[in-house]
Amino acid sequence: MTDHIPSTSPDPELWDRPKKGPAGELFAPVAGYGVTISSMFRKPVTEQYPEEKVPTAPRYHGRHQLNRYPDGLERCIGCELCAWACPADAIFVEAANNTPDNQVSPGERYGRVYQINYLRCIFCGFCIQACPTRALTMTNEYELAGPTREGLVYEKEDLLAPMLEGMLAAPHPMAEGASDADYYRGEVAGPTAAQIEWVAEHRPDDPTLATAVSVDAPGPFDAAAAPAGAPVDSAAASADASGGKRTEGGR
Ligand code: SF4
Ligand code: SF4
After folding, report:
1. Is the domain of 150 the same as that of 77?
2. With a 6 A CB cut-off, is 86 part of the ligand 1 pocket?
3. Which amino acid positions bind [4Fe-4S] cluster 1, per UniProt (predicted)?
4. Is residue 76 marked as binding?
5. Is the C-beta atom of 116 inside 6 A of ligand 2?
6. Which pLDDT tens digit goes with each residue over 159-205?
7. Is the pTM of this model over 0.85?
8. 88 CA → ligand 1 middle, Å
9. How far apart (Å, rounded) are the C-alpha atoms in residues 193 and 195?
10. Residue 86 is labelled as binding a ligand
């Protein structure tokens, strides 16, 4: 009746350790040092952070970044999909309407307020998967610490990608003849002469005017040679319809 139940009484042979020889008995008290001593001759694996920083894996999930289009307009359209996808409720977005005088991103709306709370974020990446315009991506930056809780709520200015050489700071009108779909398809390669003229007229002190490179007439904009409010060169204007876009359709 009870044949299938294994015996719980201990098998004495399980507990019998082999007897040590005289040498084993002699070195037994210091045998544990063998592990220590053998480790002394191995290559150390300790990372000397923060003195030496080891690069992360290329796809490491670090701090977020809000990207721009090549002409400087922001990619974020304030749709809040990232905030809805976030399981930690770490993102807050408040959108506003683009206007002719304040065109921040292609299309109707842009992200006026954008915050990520790094006290909540678990770096899962759901938000960047949800973003329809690739406005939101993640960098390899992992040094996210600070003395205050407020300091770990990153604002839009903290997250916006830096202006690259040749870009023109937003706000400014969209490239002539380009729709928001053209922007999404990567067909806008950089600022046009008309966009640069617009910024020169409305923000003559904008520092990106000195480095902006027009896709119509490549070369830094010369604010001194073209005073604020100067009309757009007609040849450049006529080229805008095609010059403001990439013809190969690549990014
Ligand atoms: S990485 Fe994850 S937790 Fe962090 S903001 Fe994005 S969706 Fe939220
Ligand atoms: S980052 Fe992307 S998903 Fe989030 S509000 Fe902007 S466009 Fe929408």
Report:
1. yes
2. yes
3. 76, 79, 82, 131
4. yes
5. no
6. 999 999 999 999 999 999 999 999 999 999 999 999 999 999 999 99
7. no
8. 7
9. 5
10. yes
